[in-house]
Amino acid sequence: MAESEPTVATPDAVPVAAAPASTTAPPDPRAGWTDDQKRAFWKTHSYFEAIPDTIGPMRQLLREYSHVPDAEMDAHLFAVRDKLWAVHKYPCIGRFAFCDLNMTKSPHYQAAVRRLRASSDERLLDLGCCVGQVLRQLMHGDGVPASQLSGSDLHKAFIDLGFEVFRDGPPEASELTFIAGDLLSDDDKSCDVLEKSATLVHAANLFHLFSWDEQVKLGKRMIGFLREDALCGGESDSDDDRLTFLGTHLGARVAGEHRIMPASPRMRYLHNTESFQRLWDEIGAATGTRWRIAHDQTREGMGEALTGNTNIQYVQYGVWRAV
């Protein structure tokens, strides 16, 4: 998910070598904006009036799996987008990013599919699953049994609306497993049921929501969702076998605290390759594990188009057990 309220232009980044330690909230740069300025910003960056032409795989999934006729497709997508928007005004909802299934082209995603199809013992957990679009793609588009798939999102309403998006309700009849809960809350125990359940964890558009320290906490939680056998392996294991975490997020050529939108009152830590490895080194040190990462720009220009910031990139990542 992405930022919930856009604002006006501010400095691009505050590069730092390790975890930022800010205790003072930055001033809100939206002060003084007119209503017309706010509306123009939303339309440019957060709430599209046209459906992007990059959602072909989602259209195919809705056509083949959900049996949504082409003549009804756009109206259906606008209707569910606005219901999701009413739950929370994330720009990834307003921009129809929940309809983007282009991650299927990622070599890390394809490796995960190979594993899931090769062994019924493999289990994938999708964190920040939104409406469950990745899980439905894996199930219908890639032939992975629903019994091997589970998802979690902060917003139960997103999960519930997924059954409206894909017309495969009621939820209680679904073979997919969904759990709503706050991954970073010490008080919310909802996701505890997922501990030691997965061999693969997918997390798209999640890391870029948080500070360095929150990302360390997230990574430790992700490791807690792994089965014991997912943390073991021998030197003879292939790269496919060692792949453990995968996804996409906003990254940066210059790693550090960034304002994701062209303007935002909140800073988040965005990574380049070096800083993402440092993050997983710190997570590993805290959990007695070792990891190596790949962190590569994908869909050149997308990060800048989404944020208005030439330093920001859209990145696909993979994390493997290190030997």
From TrEMBL:
Top-level taxon in the UniProt lineage: Eukaryota
Comp. bias intervals (Low complexity): 1-25
Ranges where the record places region Disordered: 1-34
Keywords: S-adenosyl-L-methionine, Transferase
Pathway(s) served: Secondary metabolite biosynthesis
Protein family: Belongs to the class I-like SAM-binding methyltransferase superfamily.
Record PANTHER family: METHYLTRANSFERASE AUSD
Protein name stated in the entry: Methyltransferase domain-containing protein
